[in-house]
């Protein structure tokens, strides 16, 4: 947009008048501005790189792994007091069962990614539905749903996940449902709060004044403007889900199939060899911490980029 100073083009001798001045103003959308800030944030770049590497390794594990997962054909090389270390055939050595440790770590990333993404998606879908009904309808629906959410929030998330997994049994599906159940109340309260904050916005009052139905206003206008914090929370929950997958496996509630590589179970099976072969526990533990760090850095940076208070 071009602004022309008052008096432009008049006599040059008038002190109140001067040459033409132009100012260019270019507006940017919320997400485009957030992307520009993320590109200048070193923590966001670091987190994004970790997440991208983790996803690529999980997706292309069959191509990157030199052997099939849980291949125990080298079991005769493992003794109760010694596990073979790195060699020309095995980049990181073997694990306690005679499987290639490098292969197990690669396929463990795939299992963690699948469970983390599916459980986060389930928690987001159910929690968003509850939050949408509570914040969009209000009244007694809001009161009833939020009291249920308050009960769920009073239970520690890991304890709730353990309880659900114990009831459903030891399967990957039960782990996904257990982790999702622990995240439902978080997404529900967050979306409800965002919808309530939008309720008295000018665009909502304008849409209502035009005669639009309440459902149309909520779904077409309020909901799209309330999803930013929920998307950021989903990124942070992926970090928590990665840790909870490992925790449930560590407690014996994960996938029982021994041929399925999983970082948490690798920690459990290596705890009796910490003194002699610490790499068996250190490597999967380091990958769990590094993956959670990547999602946390990206989520925190995204939250600051979308929050007007942090814009600079």
UniProtKB/TrEMBL annotation:
Q: Where, by residue number, does the polypeptide cross the bilayer?
A: 42-65, 113-141, 148-167, 173-191, 230-253, 280-302
Enumerate the CDD domains for this protein. Answer: TM_PBP2 (cd06261)
Map out region (Disordered) in residue numbers: 1-24
Any Pfam family from its record, for instance, is OppC_N
Q: Name one GO cellular component term.
A: plasma membrane
Please state where this protein is localized.
Cell membrane
Q: What topology in the membrane does the UniProt record assign?
A: Multi-pass membrane protein
Coiled-coil regions listed: none
GO BP: transmembrane transport
- To which protein family does this belong? Belongs to the binding-protein-dependent transport system permease family.
| This protein's name | Dipeptide transport system permease protein DppC
Instruction: Print the organism lineage.
Output: Bacteria, Bacillati, Actinomycetota, Actinomycetes, Frankiales
